[in-house]
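Course assignment 3, question 2. Fill in each field.
Student: A.L.
Task: Predict the tertiary structure for the chain below.
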Amino acid sequence: MSSIAGVIYLVIGVFVAISKGYAGTIDGFGDIVNLLLAITLWPLVLLGVKFNLRFGGGRDRNSLADEAAMLLGPPLVYGRAALSAIRAR
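Answer field:
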């Protein structure tokens, strides 16, 4: 009886994940993990929790560099801008 309840739980999780948009575009490992979390923890999804783990899926190299520059401070932002100006010449 418990295996039937488990299957029903996962089927409901699949429907909730699809309805909340977790199965739309899967661009990488992070999107797969988000989908699996949404399926297994679907009651939290219904309560408004949004899973948004990133492991590089769907992001380009420039956005990663921008995020790193913001985290590491203004000197890196200045250095990156200076290098871009040198490359543009």
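Instructor remarks: The chain is about 70% helix and 0% strand. The helical segments are 2-19, 29-40, 42-46, 61-72, 74-88.
Grade: pending
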